[in-house]
Write a structure and sequence with these properties.
The chain is of the alpha+beta class. It is 38% helix and 20% strand. It is globular, with a radius of gyration of 23 Å. The relative contact order is 0.11.
Amino acid sequence: MSEDRSSNEHKSWLGKLSQAFAHEPRNRKELLDILRDAHHNKLLDSDALAIVEGAIQVADLQVRDIMVPRSQMMSIKVEQSPAEFLPAVVEAAHSRYPVTGESLDEVLGILLAKDLLPLILQGSEQRFDIRQLLRPVTFVPESKRLNVLLKEFRAKRQHMAIVIDEYGGVAGLVTIEDVLEQIVGEIEDEHDVEEDSYIKPLPSGDFIVKALTPIDSFNDFFECDYSEDEFDTIGGLVMSAFGHLPMRNEVTEIGAFRFRIINADSRRIHLLRVTPLNS
């Protein structure tokens, strides 16, 4: 009997959802309201809703909103020997690196880390010419929409692009993973916080911080003194500073730190990128 009731309720809400879409939403807010109502009535789970919200949000974002800025780019100079650049490559553990000429604005190509394997296996730098390993580089403007960039990445089977500013200089870089993370949330990689910890230092000097980090733990780690009177977690403090439930890549400053939302859904913040402002 309960199964029949559940089935009827499910069909009822499907009917309501179909009816809602029969009257085409006039804007994205109305569309999101319908989807969130469907989530509230258990037609969509939280993960599915977050993905749909992320896909809709991508059309509103530009490359400048998610790119790795020039100051944080890990690049290799064309004149460097393997002995000079390999330690940094091993530490960063990325799959692709821009290779530059005399300045960072002269990007000659992209080096794939896997193309260095023969060098490591041979154990010799004789006749090594990094130019022979370079893949073509793609340049995109800061203003390019993320949905357009994703289509281009897929069509050309590329994974990285160099971002240029209005004067033609290098402003940063962007990867297909950066774009996909706006849709599906943070993709697990070497920057993820371990399950049994709250804070992960990054080579850039920033930190990946779980929103559920207790404020006293955050204070102890960063030697600061955020109040624990109103909120138990750093996520609660950050949400209060925004005054609303923030979306990915929204930024706020509280005291001596800048907080960027890395991962959030329609209910709560999950991950933050924390930058000390005095560094």
